[in-house]
Amino acid sequence: MAHEEDALEHERASWKPSPGLAVAVPDPVHNPGLPPHRERITDKDPAAMKRAVRTVYTLFYLSLAGSIWAIAAYMLFPIESGRIVDIRHNNLFIGLGIGLALLAIGIGAIHWSKAIMSDKEFIEPRHATRGRDTTREAAVQVFRDANEESGFGRRTAIRGSLIAALVASILPGITLFRGLAPHSSEANPIAGDPVALLSHTMWKKGERLAHDPSGRPIRAADLTLGSAVHVIPESLAELSHHDGYLEEKAKAIVLLMRLLPEQLPADQNKLEWSYNGIVAYSKVCTHVGCPVALYEQQTHHLLCPCHQSQFDVSRSAAVIFGPAARPLPQLPITVDDEGYLIAQSDFTEPVGPSFWERH
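The line above is the sequence of Cytochrome bc1 complex Rieske iron-sulfur subunit; the predicted structure tokens follow.
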């Protein structure tokens, strides 16, 4: 094999084109070089440079003001009041504050790079050598050069305003975490306990099941086979938004479905909690609390659109796919003397996500 390779290499080295045979030799690509450098107005006029510097740190301080306003809006328009106008103003003004904070930082950084930082082109040769002392020293020198060219170390007004704007820009997001769970108080001692909050809803013995959002009670005879109805407690309509309508509805929402009675095996279902094939399950996904609202009547599967958890209604809403950790809580139901569907009791376990520490 070695002799064959040597012979092939010798043949290639000794080959010459035959007389009259044209051989195309490509011309090397011409390097056009860099275009002529044009000085910026800030490079030629010191007054223009000062104006650019003032513009940049003004934008950074404007970003700082936007962050402060977002925090102030969170306090001025508390969503805990339950009033629609406060919720709208909360979303609007916090969004405007955060948007202004981020936009001003972005515009200021771009203007800084275009008008103030060094505008000279240079070529950076690259090679495969890495990790030597000379390489590390060169890297340190690059940072020194970048600091010198950008003026970050010299221009204290820009540096200080940028640091303040960046620090302040994260404060609105941190402030918003406060609204994830209400704080307990003497008037509402369980407000800070998610387990207690999710363990009880407006459902109680004799509470009629009603259409969402009309509040019209539901007769068992009106439900067709394969139907899925969004349900709320009938008494929910008596609450106003100020009295916690949205909070109570978020916990008590239910999906009502009708199957053939024989499609509910007795060994996998609590038949005493259903009525003639009609079952009711919490709409709050046991993964992170998204609304489970997609029902496939042929397979009797419920789908959560957020993270694709699937529950089998014919088997006590058992989890058959996805990240949900437990079945959907079932609402025990029956009918009253007038044929309306009513609850036998509240849910017997907490509704909602499973990551809370449940008793």
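Note on the example: Residues 261 and 277 are 4 Å apart (CA to CA). The radius of gyration is 35 Å.
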